[in-house]
Amino acid sequence: MKTIQYITAVLCSLVFVGCSDFSDSINTDPNKPGVASGTQLIANAALFLPDLSSSPRGEFMAQYLAETQYVGASLYPQESTSFYYWYEEPLMNLQAAIESDDLDASEGPIANQLAMARILKAYFFWNVTDRWGDVPYSKALQGADNFTAAYDTQESIYNDLFNELKEAVEMIEPEKVDNDIIYGGDMSQWQKLANTIRLLMALRLSEVAPARAMEEFKAAHADGVFASNGDNLVFHHLADANNQNYWYNEVVNRNREWWALTETLVAEMKPADDPRLPVYGDPARASGEYTGLKFGEEEDISTEKYSLMGPAIYAQDASIYLVTYAQVLFALAEAAERGWISGDIEALYNQAIEASIAQWTGSTQGVGEFLAKPGIAFEPANALKMIATQRWVHLYMFGYEAWAEWRRTGYPDNLVEPNGVAVPGRLSYPDNEAFNNTENYEEAVQRQFGGDDSIHEKVWWDVD
Fold it and tell me: I need a surface site. Which of 40, 76, 171, 388 has the fewest CB within 10 A?
């Protein structure tokens, strides 16, 4: 920098003109604009979507993967988990877009840009509150104006998110928006996404507020939800180091065979020759058979003996499934079972499994035979258990979402308690909150859990 300043001074002394403009130009990178557009802010926030799914901790919570190297990480230790990442990155970008006075209409209708930002913001916040419980919400994202935001109750957050999603849909115009890396600017897809998120959020309230849950569920369904796998919210990684799958970096670049399919997952899928199993994992190298590792097993662990993640899961350009048509069908089957809507429960259940298999394998060949197999064929007397268990199979690798559904329904009902430690009910707040946001942190912990910020406490909607 001193060299640049010296050269600038010499040139100024020689020509006597344009010194200020010249200095500004040589210190400005034309490839790094100082101000991001609204669509750029939204696209940048969307880049964080796969992080909602791609997490060893999330897979441990749903018991999809068992740790082969550092088993202690999967034994549910009492530890804090930071939520700052979500606030500082995607949520702050989305808030900046929502509050901007400089959105560019040449990139698409302003209303559509705002709607996209509000839908994504609601989706991120839904994930955050379902993991921690009460979190900073209405007073958050104010930057230097408020570094110590109060915690909103999860109930009030849910109520506001329902409204945000409905209002976002109502403001959408037909014209496309530029730089949309999710749906290519197709606003009808964004409308269906918002309604589908509402539908799944409503189902989450089935045990704590069933009347409200049914009301919101039926309204979201009537407004139009996903109708095919083509509607899915999917993040497509690239075969490029700048936008690659988290698991590719771990498994291929770092050569880590740290995770095997769990005994619970393989035991659910192998007896029925589930066509998704060859996608989910590989046969064990030692035996050539699909073999799951007991979750939390600490002795005699050899990666040769157990099924590891399949290449499609850790591929550099793997797709990450976040909100899916199969989830909608499972939700509709459950809603019909609960009497919220009319519908053929068995048909919806079968359609959900078919959509899941098509999503994961790209084919529905042999689905009819699979649906007739013992343990898969629908049993009306065990409707909720079967729906929830097959939803768990479908949600493979989105462990946090599967964990939320397990907390709500209790299924599958054979998850392991390693060393007698139960599956957690939530994530503990960041340690820093106790020091940097003391009053609000303590009030939230006291209000929800009687003062104990434990992973074994429960969030508002988890009443079982």
Answer: 171
245-to-59, 276, 353 alpha-carbon distances in Å: 15, 20, 26
Cβ neighbours for 364, distance < 8 A, ≥ 6 positions apart? 354, 357, 358
Strand 259-261 to strand 151-152: parallel, antiparallel, or no bridges (unpaired)? unpaired
The tokens for 459 are: 């969030």
208: which residues sit within 8 A by CB, 6+ positions away?
460, 461, 462, 463
Cα 134 from Cα 128, distance rounded (Å): 9
Q: If we measure between CA atoms, which residue out of 212, 132, 215, 160 comes closest to residue 460? A: 132
Which amino acid makes up residue 377?
A: A
**Count of CB atoms within 10 A of residue 123's CB?**
23
User: What's the pLDDT tens digit per position in 375-431?
Assistant: 999 999 999 999 999 999 999 999 999 999 999 999 999 999 999 999 999 999 999
Cis peptide bond N-terminal to 412, omega within 30: yes
Other Cβ atoms closer than 10 A to 56: 18
Assigned token pair, 254: 């770092």
> DSSP secondary-structure letter at 151?
E
Which is nearest to 127 in space by CA: 51, 208, 221, 210? Answer: 51
pLDDT 10s digits, 97-138 = 999 999 999 999 999 999 999 999 999 999 999 999 999 999
Interatomic CA distance for residues 130 and 425, integer angstroms: 10
Residue 321: its H or E element: strand 319-323
Q: Residue 288, Cβ neighbours under 10 Å: how many?
A: 9
Q: How far is the C-alpha of 13 from the C-alpha of 148, rounded, in Å?
A: 51
Cα–Cα distance for residue pair 441/431, rounded to 1 Å: 10
